[in-house]
Amino acid sequence: MGYRVAVVGATGNVGREILAILEELNFPVEKMHAIASRKSKGVEVSFGDRTIKCEDIEQFDFSSVDLVLMSAGGAVSREWSEKIGKAGPIVIDNSSAFRQDPDVPLIVPEVNPDDAKLARKKNIVANPNCSTAQLVVALKPLHDAAKIKRVVVSTYQSVSGAGKEGMDELWNQTKAIYGLGDATPKKFPKQIAFNVIPYIGSFRDDGYTDEEAKMWEETHKMLDPSIKLTVTCVRVPVFVGHSEAVTVEFDRPIAPDEAREILREAPGVQVIDKQEHDGYITPVDAAGEHAVYVSRIRKDPTVEHGLSFWVVSDNLRKGAALNAVQIAQLLDETGVITPSSGYRTLTV
């Protein structure tokens, strides 16, 4: 017995990862539906040891399920999420469509689990931007210990954050450059192979990009609106895994050793921090893992109470699919959702 679940966008990178993680974490699923656009109807995807065929979103009866995990992009979410919510199930939306809606909680379970009680306002819960998710998991325990005043972040974001097209472009450009082929950019504004691009999203009037703005807006909503945050988002030629160079100013002194101990005890965080070649984490190390890794914790001598550190996580997992499934677990454990079969997890 368990939940009747639909994954919308089941053929995409994140959709397939959601299906895998639901199985990995033994989320109680009674019936699984893979939902996609009409052109993908009948396409087969894996769920555990089973293969299921995608159903057409236009024809699917969403009142027949308890929970919908939406990962089909902002346009699809804006068209469908509220309609689905009104039909009964809770929607966990992986796009940016509802993140700043005051009636929609934006949740990272390690950071603001109490906001789960707001999920029934619209029957929608928003999943944060991939770079924000790993950042706030690292900031939350430090903020609890010594209030954060200001954060400076530079991201190093993998091409999988731009979907399958982004990963294909890096692969194809790399082959083209080695083989003297055509490396003309198609998905990204400039060549991504052997290059970095200090631009993700679209420019705003203030010179920042909307990807950068998402990070401070979402941090303010989930953690503390008083934290000052400035961000530079950069696309790098890495297939999976986002990295962030983070500098934090606190309202009291906090030594690197104290920060290490705080983070070692924090949920969802692993500290790998030694001054040797295997004493820090890279995106290759984090790929396929659940944790948010923190390395290179050190004092920032340019401010009164400052630390700098390095944060790495698999953006398809904690940055997207894993966090969505963890939200589903949170909703189940707190009784916000209950399956029509009557089953409910007893572990809280």
From TrEMBL:
Entry keyword set: Amino-acid biosynthesis, Diaminopimelate biosynthesis, Lysine biosynthesis, Methionine biosynthesis, NADP, Oxidoreductase, Threonine biosynthesis
Superkingdom to which the source organism belongs: Bacteria
InterPro entries for this protein: Asp_semialdehyde_DH, Asp_semialdehyde_DH_beta, NAD(P)-bd_dom_sf, Semialdehyde_DH_NAD-bd, Semialdhyde_DH_dimer_dom
Binding locations of phosphate: R99
Protein name in UniProt: Aspartate-semialdehyde dehydrogenase
Catalyzed chemical reaction(s): L-aspartate 4-semialdehyde + phosphate + NADP(+) = 4-phospho-L-aspartate + NADPH + H(+)
Enzyme class per UniProt: oxidoreductase
Source organism (scientific name): Brevundimonas naejangsanensis
Pfam families reported in the protein's UniProt record: Semialdhyde_dh, Semialdhyde_dhC
E.C. code: 1.2.1.11
Lineage of source species: Bacteria, Pseudomonadati, Pseudomonadota, Alphaproteobacteria, Caulobacterales
SUPFAM superfamilies: Glyceraldehyde-3-phosphate dehydrogenase-like, C-terminal domain, NAD(P)-binding Rossmann-fold domains
Semialdehyde dehydrogenase NAD-binding domain residues: 4-119
Family indicated by similarity: Belongs to the aspartate-semialdehyde dehydrogenase family.
Gene: asd
UniProt KW rRNA processing keyword: no
UniProt-listed Gene3D superfamilies: Dihydrodipicolinate Reductase, domain 2 (3.30.360.10), NAD(P)-binding Rossmann-like Domain (3.40.50.720)
